[in-house]
Amino acid sequence: MPLYQPDAQAVLADGGYVLARVPAERTSVILRPGHPDLTTQGDLDAALCGLRSLGVGDFAFYNLGLLRAADLKRLRQALSRQVSHV
Question: Which of 1-5, 46-50, 79-83 has the lowest mean pLDDT?
Fold first, then answer.
């Protein structure tokens, strides 16, 4: 499910809406961790953490190969924090 939203609050609102109708174990989430969405470390961390708390475990990232170096660094940091919380 693509959750292309500008901040974690909007990502989690949309994710919660869908996950109320579709089991999380049957759901894969696509996030855009760079402009124009999730442009801060806090939003990226909160979106990943919040979606995990809703039961999502399968993530993909839109246009990963086109992200700026700073966006890739934020994504790497966010994912490493998620792994340490599993």
Answer: 79-83
Peptide bond into 33 cis (omega under 30): no
Domain that holds residue 56: 8-84
Question: 38: left (phi > 0), else alpha (psi -120 to 50), else beta?
Answer: left
Supply 53's token pair: 């708390």
Residue 34 lies in a domain: yes
Total count of domains within the chain: 1
Q: Is the dihedral of CA 74, 77, 81, 82 positive or negative?
A: positive
Q: How far apart are CA 76 and CA 53, in angstroms?
A: 20
Domain annotation covers residue 16: yes
Closest CA to 1 of 11, 40, 72, 82: 11
Instruction: Quickly state the pLDDT bin for 83 (edges 50, 70, 90).
Output: low
